[in-house]
Fold this sequence. Notes:
It is found in: Membrane. This protein is mainly α. It has one domain.
Amino acid sequence: MDRIKTIVKEEFYLFFQLKKTERLWHIPLLASLCTGIPLLLGYFGGRLDYGVLACIGGLVILYMPSTNMEHRMLTLLLCAFGFVISFAVGAAFSFDPFLSAVALGLFAFSINWLVRYFALQPPRNFFFIMIASMASCMPFDVVALPTRVGLIALGTIFACILAFFYSLYILRRIPHKAAPVFVRSADRFMRIESAIIGTFISLSLLVGHTLHLDNPYWVPISCLAVMQGLNVAHVGRRSLHRILGTFVGVGLTWILLAAEPTALHVCIAILILQFVIEMLVVRHYALAVIFITPLTFFLAEIGSGFSLDTDLLITARLLDIVIGSLIGALGGWMLHNRQLHRLAIVRVSRHRWRKR
């Protein structure tokens, strides 16, 4: 009983604690510009739907490492290529819900293995799988596919250009050490970890389709966000923080929508919200989720002009996140359960021995 009280006190203390970070405010500003400017260009150009796709590609700026110029740009260019592939894979199988779930699971397995093998820094596999999830739930349209993929690519190119000029400025003020171009990291748990992630991402999208949710891609996205915890306790904490943050975020979304914002106001709000999120996400996950909720809601519905019942949309979004977080909590427990890992390794070893 005393042990439970101690754990509860620790979790209560951690919930109200802001972590220290050495992250410069420049990165949140760059992230908001890389998402906000394409949206504004789309708005003033009369194609807001194009702006939404380009701003998603702009999120590649979050993968810029704090290293020398060569390593920065090479990392960003490879991640930009990964963004394009992620969207193309998701969109190519969106014609069938079951097939898209299987394809997403296989893609999640592959991208997690590659990210782990080359030791890519946070946010690691998150945005690759997120983009593939969103693309897999879009209406299938072969004619529009090249245009959509091209818009994602344009967003990544714009982000790379901003990153290049920013790096010219910051590297003169704060010199960074050279980093190896390719850092390979391999261990025996990589395949097991990737298989668990791929399975639960596929399962979560399948659950979203089975329940006929309006935006089923939020289920695997929430599942993945929770599974990124460092250990079982961290996974449980992220699940709780995501659900609590979403409840508060729903209230913030209602307040923002009550003001009856125009499309231009929503674009500006997305730019500001992106900056706030990137400032908070490394310091307090639950606080960041409060602002992630209206941001993702605006991105998902800005194209439709909020023509549907906002109460129903917000309720559906809340349900998506709760389901995804619970599935992610289960997946995270399996991901960090060493006993299950040992059992899987023994079975794989026996299977290989029998083949010999």
